[in-house]
Amino acid sequence: MALYSDKVMDHFRNPRNVGTIENADGVGEVGNAKCGDIMTMYLKIDDDVITDVKFETFGCGSAIASSSMATEMIKGKPVSEALTVTNKAVAEALDGLPAHKMHCSVLAEEAIKAALKDYYDKNGIAYDPELFPGESCAHCEH
Ligand code: FES
Questions:
Q1: Mean pLDDT of 34-58
Q2: Global pTM?
């Protein structure tokens, strides 16, 4: 079996929603200290719906594929739904990632959450702090 699924290769070679959004309603930058990869997610939010999303990822192919897939999963969705996207869901949508690359999908989940937290903070919206369990990443065992 090939190490990477066709979907991973497709999203790596033709990433969707690459770029930045000027005056984004929420921006989230996360990184993995061990591999050094960095991901930034930009959200445009209208009436609590994510109307546009872009990303920049300086990292490995799996991180690029994960962020690309994650943007497709949250575009057009309510904020509450985007908050439930997990790294496992991103990896499954990519038809799986090799075990040692799962942490790359974690970056995508964290980038979405960081951008949504930024949106909440900027707009003074109250939220349950447990939704955002801090900056440190327990998953990064890379
Ligand atoms: Fe670290 Fe992929 S995000 S190797």
A1: 97
A2: 0.91
